[in-house]
Structure formats: C-alpha cells, structure tokens
Amino acid sequence: MAYDGFLCYADSDIRYAQMVVDVLQNEPYNLRICINSEELLDGDTSSSGSSVSAELIIQRCKKILVVITPEFEKSSQHEFIAKVANALKDDKNQRLLIMQFRECDIPVSVRHITVCDLTKATVEWAWHRISAGLKKNARSLDDTTSQLKNIYLGHSLSKKESHETVTGSSSGGTEGGTQAEAKDISNKNPEVQYDAFVSYSPEDQSFVSEMVEKMKQEPWNLQLFVPGKDVADISSDYIAHRCKKIILVLTPSFLENPECLYHIKLAIDLDRSRIIPVLLESCSTPNTIQHIAIIDCTRLELIDWFWQRLGQTIKQPLY
What we know:
Layout: E1 3-8, H1 14-24, E2 33-34, E3 51-53, H2 54-60, E4 61-68, H3 77-87, E5 96-100, E6 115-117, H4 123-135, H5 141-152, E7 156-158, E8 194-199, H6 205-216, E9 224-225, H7 236-242, E10 243-250, H8 252-255, H9 258-270, E11 275-279, E12 295-296, H10 303-315
Parallel strand pairs: 1-2, 1-4, 4-5, 5-6, 8-9, 8-10, 10-11, 11-12
Antiparallel strand pairs: 3-7
Helix pairs in contact: 2-5
C-alpha cells in the first residue's frame, strides 16, 4: 500500500489536518499520510473526472484517519465515513482511526470506534497511540478490502474536498494454573522490589513512561515495574512476590489485550486490595473490579489531582 493512512476532514479543519501530517510524517513516527485524494491517482487514468473512488482509497491506504470537530458531521466527508464505518462495524482490523481535536458530540456513525482524544493533557500519548494504530498489522485486510469494494464501489470523494476470554495462556501465565500462590508482601518484606506492577496495552506506552517518571520523583520516590521495559518476560510469581500493588491502565485497547485481561484475573486471585485501576480513556470497567475505586485521568482540569491521588494510593500501606 502506498500510504499508511488517508486523512478525512472538513474543509474548515485544514489546520488540524496539516497538524496530523506534520506530526506523523516526521520523527519519531515517519509515516506516510495522504491528505489530498489526488495523490492517490499517481498516473492512474481509470479514476477520471473530479472524483476518487472509495475503492482506490482502500487499495492504496492501510488505514483511514478521521478528524472530528463540530464541523465534521456537517461536511460532505461525513457521508463517506458513515458508510465505511457501517461496513466495518464488525471488523477486527481497526482500519478506521478517529481523532477528536475539539470538544463535540461524536457522530453516531462512529461512536462504536475508539476515539483518540487530542483535547486533553495526554496529547503526546495520543499521538503515540495514533502512530501505533497506523503501524499495527491488520489481519485479513484482503477480506476487508473486498467487503468495502463490494458495498461502496460507486462511492466517490471530491478531489477538492479531499475480548477474548483468557484462561491463563499468556506469556506471563501462571505456572501450573491460573491461581497464583500469594505470600507476605507487607511493606517490610525484603523480597518486595517494586511499589507497583503496571499492566497496560502497548498503545499506551507513552503515558506509562510519563507515569513512571512522575512517580519516581519527589515527593513519591516510587519504583514501578513495567513489563517489556524492566524485564522482557515476567512470571506471575514475580508479580505476586516482588510487586506490592498492581496498576491497571484501563483503555479500550487494554480490554482487548489477552495479557492485560490475564493480569486482571491474576490480581483478583492474589488480593483485590492490591489493585489500582487507572482510567486513561473512557471504556467499560470489567465486572470483577467495578467495586474498586478508579483513579480518573481523563479530565484535563484534574490532571494535577490525578498524579497526587495515584502517588498517595500506591504509597498507602497494605493491611
């Protein structure tokens, strides 16, 4: 495919579209983004006149990026995206990526799709998440492309407008079963090396890195264990015996990640009082942890309170 992503946006939102291109096409992402549908023709005379077919977009662009603002739903681009979203509503390939740049109601046509929110304090994390979404290998892309071709072969865009259930089979699976043997993890236990283990989806790496840096500074001086960073592979026994608490970074991607779901089960099997759920992006809360207080990181105006609350919760002694 010629491009990593095709960008859909309202004409009045060209400044946001240009921002997307400037950020994603340069270091550290180095992605190819198509902002003008004419670029897709590339000498192709089969798409003549003033339109580029949806088929051509799907053939030459790995993903479709959508810039959401109050103006988008009123634009001509919305009709095209609504049809594509409907065709992909049961698709697991996540070929549509939704980016919100201003506060507004998300169009009904794309509400079932996870939104990357660029209106909040975690905007740097959002760019990393978008990049990860574009780079993510899609499964059965040929099947998806064929499906869209059949449904929208005649649709065109103006050139001008250019949970899988986890049973313990995981890289961090429990030896001999899903029930881990808990032992003393009191604050004075010399085996405890970390204040908390962090379970997160790879798409949220940027936020987790920021959290680690924040928590190891004054006044917290906390040591967080990050799988994949501190150790490539980690056993449940290590989590149970060496980490005092378990932080769950909740996002829609977290809930789709088998290893993250396993970490929820492991934490519950060990001791529910050790669990610290952190809501990074709006999503449903697993029934098994709904009774546990969640620390909300989705509100820009409360970001300082979030860091304060997180640090206090990690430092709180276990009883």
